[in-house]
Batch of 2 targets.
Target 1
Amino acid sequence: MVAVRFHGRGGQGAKTASRILGTAAFLSGYVAQDSPIYGAERRGAPVAAFTRFGREPIRERGAITHPDVVVVADASLLEDPGARVLEGARAQTVLFVNSSLSPDALRAHLSLPEQVMTRDVTGIALQQLGQREAISALLGAVAARLVGLEWEPVRQAITRELEDLAVAPPVIEKNLTVAKQCYDSVEPTGLHKGGGQVISAAALHNPIYEPPTKGTARISAAGNSVLRETGGWRTFRPVLVAGKCNGCWLCFVYCPDGVIAMNQDDRPVVDYAHCKGCQICVHECPTHALVAEREQEGGEAWTAK
Amino acid sequence: MWQRETFKKIKQIPREEHVLPGTALCAGCGGLEALRLAAKVLGDHVVYVNAAGCFTMLAAYPYTSFKGSWLYTTMGSAPAGAQGVRDALDVLIAKGKLPKSEDVKVVVLGGDGSTYDMALSSTSGALHRKLDFYYICYDNEAYGNTGMQLSPATPYAARTATSPCSVQHPAATAQEKKNIFEIWRAHRPPYIATVAPRYPLDLEEKFARAAAFTGPKMFLALSACPTGWVYDPGETPEVAKLAVETGLWPLKEAINGVVTHTYIPKRKPVEAYLKLQGRFRHLFEPTVHTDAIRHIQERVDAYWQQVTKEQA
Ligand SMILES: Cc1ncc(C[n+]2csc(CCOP(=O)(O)OP(=O)(O)O)c2C)c(N)n1
Ligand code: SF4
């Protein structure tokens, strides 16, 4: 059995990527299962998805605690303790990260398995698809190549899964072209399955029943959600271009999360610890004073419309 | 002509935040946009009574975004919960255990699944008893929290998880959106309004006006939902704007049953609104469902013809 775990942020397509891999494996004649897991969180919050496939019936269910391959759709998740990207990974686990940084650059401040690969999938999608986030087909294709599946079933799987999401045929075609490039950009890895040194132990807890008198949660600290920083959800950050803002307040008014405050000179100040990167301010700013810059890896800025 | 009295300029919108960040709601949530603006008028002396749905994540243990209080109820019983809270406050005040100055507003938060469907009888009861409360329905036109299933608020031809395009229904949802405004209005509460956060002054003004009334104050807030309606989160205000400008989402209020439209749109063709959203994409690709689009346009036209007739 091969176990592949995907990590992404809600909306990036980790779940669909895992389905694409599962379907491609099934079409290749394997038994396969795929399932996502997410909490009550939404678009932008960490999610994981699991694909298992093999020649023999697979009895194991639920979360993959010891993955052979980990596919990470967003490099910022590596450092998000809530996402637990490396949990249960062993020294020989293959780690693929969607990042423009090199594996060595990532290793500089993180302890990672031996086999780490990076590709700037988001950059490729931006250039060739013009889409900002839906990289499911590309990640699915990369994962399928890493585990050694042929292209034809992968092509069929991408088509099926995107059709299922009512993606328009011309968009599916474009996705296939770019997915093939991503597929070709990596090599199948020799997978070592099972055994070996565990890098960080997986913690699985049995749910326990608490009576309502004890189990009902009470929060007595008002407004404490600010302790929970959602800045890591961003792929792009809104940045103020000096001299262009006319102080109209619209970014402040339309921000759903209330993370833009107007300073004494009526200029917006963004609370980057909490801004989720929805880009409403970038879209609504009448003078294009707010632009979106790609997180961490910098460079590409875009303005809406 | 309806005129705003309290909120004439954007810079009159209060700076203070009452729904704090760090929530688990989606980036670009239109419902949160509406609630945040509403709370700027409602303030912090509030008990929110929240039916299960996306908004319950605003106070997911151990964090809360509210500076005031919050109570979680089942999907079908938020107005009954509000009755209990209101009664308790009234009893405490009557017994002298709570100074009148420390009274708080009771505000129901309910999604459309709760509002149009599961909690309808509970709401009807509260309206009938003239409960002194606010009700904010954030209408994202589906059961959002559980993955966008059809609700009675889902508009005709929208694709949801449980109303996909099928051979029988190539245009997806076959039913029309339930008219909850009129159902509420039949109960004659003192105040009902529809709002859209892309029209912030209209929204703020309505919450300010509602404060003058004792009894049920009912709000229906357009809550564009990037996740369920399938569009880029940054386009939430654009989607809301087109909902209003095409005439699909009328901005109006009803005081003791008398309806006034607070904004008369020039009415762009409905395609402008539909085309922006993935949940309507099947109407345009691979083939154009002319009949379905015409049907939507005709219903909007009929609505506004009726409005014009009543105004004359
Ligand atoms: C009686 C009952 N049935 C089902 C559920 C599961 N459930 C939790 S939230 C939710 C969706 C609620 O939809 P809506 O009221 O439209 O609010 P939204 O999630 O869109 O914010 C459902 C079905 C429940 N809590 N109670
Ligand atoms: S699913 Fe829609 S309504 Fe629910 S939190 Fe996300 S954007 Fe808001």
Target 2
Amino acid sequence: MQARALNHWFGQGEARKQALYDINLRIARGSLTVLMGPSGSGKTTLLTLLGCLREVQDGSVTLLGHELRGAAAAQNVALRRRLGFIFQAHNLHESLTATQNVVMGLQVLGRVDKDRAQAAAAHALGLLGLSDRLDYLPANLSGGQKQRVAVARALVGNPDVVLADEPTAALDKESGANVVDLLKRLGRARGTTTLMVTHDNRIVERADRVLTLEDGRIVEDRTQG
Amino acid sequence: MIGRLLQALFGRLPIGWLQLTHSRTRFAAAIAGVAFANALVFVQLGIMQSMATATLRPYAFFQADVMISAAEANALAEGGNVARQWMLQALAHPDVASGMGLFLANVSWQRDTNTLGLTTFGIDPAQPGFLAPEIAAKTGPLQVQMAGLLDRLSRGLPKDEAAGIRPQAPLSFEASGKTLTLYDTFSGGGGFGGDGYMIVSDQTFLTLFPARQSGAPDHILLRLRPGADPDRVSAELRALISDKTLRIRSYADAAQEDLTYQQTKRPTGIIFGFGVIIGVLVGLVIVYQVLSTDVADHMREYATFKAMGYGPGFFLGIVFEEALILGLSGFVPGALIGGVLLTVMGMMTTLQLAVTPGMILSVFLGTLVFSTLSGVIATRRLAAADPADLF
Ligand SMILES: Nc1ncnc2c1ncn2[C@@H]1O[C@H](COP(=O)(O)OP(=O)(O)OP(=O)(O)O)[C@@H](O)[C@H]1O
Ligand SMILES: [Mg+2]
């Protein structure tokens, strides 16, 4: 994952406002990187650009060997299937059970055998301590449980890159730490790269690298052992 | 169970089904709406169908290849004098084998309890070749003055009374101050114009209606030599016959023109035609409304699916799945309700109202087409689901 001379603006004409200034960045495969910075500093903007959810206006972003600047919609759709997104809000589908929500993360990769998909979803939910909530609808889960279902949905398809924006806000300290440990294990075992926006110190401590944004610029880049 | 079926069909979770059934009251309201629209269309189509049957019914009493009518005669049951000399001119055409004048008037049969309005045809009993076999076989008694054949399916005529009319047991009644005797019956069937039909000889007809002594019939029926094309001969007769105001066309075209006239020119036909359009529009709007609120309610979920890598086909699939479910689950109760309504209306009016297989098929296909169409319109909102807004 790489960004070169990346600038980004919001709005048109008079209201046009720059959110990111000349971002240069390389993130190694299998690492866990934390993105910090005050509110409005551009963290989410950078995350959505790197995750091909937002069109690159200026500069270049390379993701899994593909240039995103001017990329065709079909390439973006295909590339997103290799990513796992964890949003601040869980964004679960209200009419699907926990298992069905997780199956959605698998099914996007193509037609899958129903029983195999169910088993994989149950396994992912089990890793997040939700074995006894498989058939619950989101309405019947606590906020933390919903967020863990969302994590399972992001991870079940074995993504190459996980992008997360304050995913642990809804989680208690322990589940938050568990999720981060799980991501680190995946990084070592499968080379899953994680980029996470967070202010949670316990997570920052466990990260391989900490980037700090201020007013759309990277002001600190710290690698920690 | 339906969920499993859809899962197998689409090879994915039946999200449309799960989404629709998630809020049961909305789903029930949507089905009720589609069912209502379907029932409306069925009833209107049933009435139109019945009108068509009733319009075409009297054409089946006769056998002819070409029909000559007055300019103002839009229907078989609507007359206008056509002078006999035109029949003579037509008979001069080498392909015309024979001709018969057909007289037409309404006869009121004042009964003890009710009055029957009978559309009465005056025919030439000596030319049974112009009559349907059932009627041709019964022309014997018509040779007698003031004899008639009665439509046994006339509205307001008790079945057992109709069954009792036979040559051995004739029934007489007063019409226009003269006594008419019914010797036999045939199968007609009341339409929107009269209660039923009666067939008498042309002699009897002219006795009943002395004002018609000029002897000009209302229509002239022609039979052609075997192999002659009625359309070609009609065209040639139009050139041959000097009165250019006459309507000269094949018997089949005359029936079709009559039907078109009833359905597109007469107020009743137009009203029922509009009913069908309104039913279709109601269904279209209901399905669109349900689908587009459903899309609007699930914007975040759809945006999430987009972020996960689901493409446009997936979202179209969901909306089509929903459109199909709504269409089908509204169609079945709609067809049932429509059938019941038509049956009840049929019993109340003695019109022949029924749901026919053709109606079921066309309403079914129409429901699928229009549900899908609503789905297509509803998906336009999907473009607004932007995954970048999720973080
Ligand atoms: N869709 C948008 N339209 C216009 N301006 C935007 C939009 N999204 C972000 N911005 C602006 O861009 C700047 C960076 O926003 P961004 O959401 O990336 O910040 P952030 O670091 O994620 O903040 P927070 O910690 O509050 O989530 C802000 O000044 C914000 O107002
Ligand atoms: Mg943010």
